[in-house]
Amino acid sequence: MKESLIQKYNVPGPRYTSYPTVPYWENEAFNYDSWIESFKKSFRESNSSEGISIYIHLPFCESLCTFCGCSKRITKNHSVEQPYLQAVLKEWKLYCDEMEERPIIKEIHLGGGTPTFFSIKNLEDLINGILKTGKKAKDFEFSFEGHPNNTTKEHLQKLYDLGFRRVSFGVQDYSETVQKAIHRIQSFQNVAKVTFWAKEIGYTSVGHDLVFGLPFQRIEDIVDTIEKTKSLKPDRLAFYSYAHTPWIKGNGQRGYKDEDIPKDDEKRKLYEVGKALLNSNGYHEIGMDHFAIATDSLYKASREGKLHRNFMGYSHSKTQMMIGLGVSSISDTWYGFAQNVKDLDDYYQLLEWEKIPVFKGHILSKEDLIIRKHILNLMCNFETSWENEVAFLPQIPEILEQLKEMETDGLIKIEENKLKVTKSGKPFLRNICMAFDLRLKRKAPKTQLFSMTV
Known about the structure:
The protein has helices spanning 3-9, 32-50, 81-97, 120-132, 153-161, 176-182, 188-201, 219-232, 246-249, 264-280, 297-303, 344-352, 366-381, 396-408, 429-434, 438-442; strands at residues 52-58, 60-61, 73-74, 104-112, 135-146, 164-172, 205-212, 236-241, 284-286, 290-292, 308-310, 313-315, 321-325, 330-332, 336-340, 358-363, 383-385, 412-415, 418-421. The chain is an alpha/beta fold.
């Protein structure tokens, strides 16, 4: 890849897990009643046809990983488990009270934090509590994130018995130097153990999360990590760019100096070397930052044009409605977003008052809905079109004019009523999406809100 392109396009930009992105939500216009109205509308439209997805945020971790950008609470006190899960089930009940029929549950994803911080019994009570008032869709998919150091075989077996078939393990990097810097010490042996347990039990999709651009990370570290990963044969991989945002996350991302972090061309080389190794070992690029083998459902969905993306990441199945439960979780009705309060005490207090604990959000305008569709198309299929009235924006000519330089650089191909991302353009997907982001254009941030795109 031309180094000049990396320098040229390496600017702060959103990751587009939503549109509008969170900093551009119109929180002043958002209120509880408008959120409930959006929720009811979406539920009526989509429950019987495709079901709903549920993301449950389990925020507790026993130690702080300094690379992490998630909302978490560090504690070794496991007495926090039951009160928290009782609160989550109460939040679920409040949503169920607003439903006109029994919810059909297509997806459940346990994220964190560290979901396997919780005991087997408590996780079982949580899932049974959710399913007590809902019914599983025929093609349901339950998944969770596991920490290789504290995921037991009993965790894997019990969650499998409850219907979970997909698990992802946070690996990041196997270099001891990198692990010490990010305060995430875990051996290859631990990762191998939980991976083989999951396969032995019968999980149909075992994933590993890898990160490039971490402090002190070198090309030889990436090569070693991927060679070790290859030997375990996970079904899918996330190969994320480390998002260095200490101005947002505070001291958690200040366990090392800025100069310790690979930047620009150096960082991009880490990705290019890693990607080439993954491709040569049978992993196909899916959307942004994701890879899967040909037998995995994510690859099949990509080939069939059925890939979907939301706050949970990429999925092989789409639901219009995603309910986020737990502190800091984000819900999505397609017509609106809402985020729960981030403080645990506030979360408990609002539930005591019989209130769904949202504190900010955004109801999408007609323009937002069209742009959201274009960005989702690009993120999932590497192309978008404006052939029909629904997908047309008056600003399309202006957007295409701004994209001309990217076309000249070989990153995209503009056809009649259609735009396609080229192979060379895939690493710059965020930059291409930014051309459609009218809110970002109309109000450029005065301070850095986003991580670098490269």
